[in-house]
Design brief:
five-stranded mixed β-sheet; two-stranded antiparallel sheet; 9 helices; 9 strands; alpha/beta; 16% strand; 278 residues
């Protein structure tokens, strides 16, 4: 009944500051001082933003991306050129800072919230003349295949929690429904579709063979009287996917349909695809 499709969404924000010129330390030659300065700043907080326990990790690909940006490439294209995939990426461009500590403080002065954002876990930088570019990223972190049983169990729990209470799905009032249980054949049908979407880089209820969920269930040997399918895009975890379904009138109605008694769920990962995780 379910085919969880998670896809990567990268939010790109470009920030810049033009400040008094000074001799700029080149963090590309030795990234450690600037990395330490940023992490020291994270440990102490800035401008009213609380400190962040998580330290930045340096990633040389982000430094290469920063160099591409310095040469005039858009950030999204620069990340693609260095084969770095992220959920969110932020660019901070500064000029006029003399050393690593000053650069870190300058970044915090321009956007303390960005520097303190715990979701941004990796960083790279590039300096040229009196300018420095910092790229901060939330790395692509797909669910692990080893966790697929736990993920399916978790989605089952979320779905049944939703079915316990009546709700509005758009304009339609849906009554509370009995819980559904897992079915291995529906999981197999879901896995086949997820694998195909990931490997062929598309997102649709219609397979490349023209078949729909009913035919896929038949092919998996599942006998059904009523059947439906939810797929999702843009979320990296099950909670966000189910929340998205409940906000969508048609997907919500699917989850709440009283006649459904069984479900199966699967996902597939392809970092080179548009969706990333399906």
């Amino acid at each position: 009944m379910k085919n969880l499709t998670l896809a990567l969404c990268a939010g790109l924000v470009a920030l810049s500051a033009g400040l008094a010129p000074a001799q700029t330390h080149n963090p590309t030659a030795d990234p450690l001082p600037l990395l330490q300065a940023l992490n020291s700043l994270r440990a102490s907080g800035c401008s009213g933003s609380p400190k962040t326990a998580a330290e930045f990790r340096f990633d040389a690909r982000l430094s290469s991306a920063a160099a591409h940006v310095a040469a005039g490439t858009e950030l999204a294209q620069a990340l693609k050129a260095v084969a770095y995939r992220s959920q969110r990426t932020t660019l901070i461009a500064l000029s006029g800072y003399a050393d690593a500590k000053a650069i870190a403080q300058g970044a915090a002065s321009y956007s303390c919230h960005t520097v303190m954002d715990p979701g941004l876990k990796e960083v790279g930088f590039y300096a040229k003349n009196k300018q420095v570019w910092l790229v901060l990223a939330e790395p692509f972190s797909p669910p692990l295949t080893a966790d697929e049983d736990q993920i399916e169990d978790h989605v089952l729990l979320l779905v049944n929690n939703a079915r316990r209470q009546a709700r509005m799905c758009g304009k339609d009032a849906m009554p509370a429904a009995q819980p559904v249980r897992l079915n291995a054949r529906l999981r197999a049908a879901s896995a086949a579709h997820a694998d195909e979407m990931a490997s062929l880089n598309y997102f649709s209820h219609t397979g490349r063979d023209g078949l729909h969920v009913s035919e896929r269930a038949n092919r998996a040997g599942y006998t059904w009287r009523a059947i439906g399918e939810n797929i999702a895009s843009g979320q990296m975890n099950a909670d966000l996917a189910v929340q998205g379904w409940l906000k969508s009138p048609s997907h919500c109605a699917n989850l709440m349909t009283p006649s459904y008694t069984e479900m199966g769920l699967a996902f597939a990962v392809n970092p080179q695809s548009d969706g990333g995780v399906y």
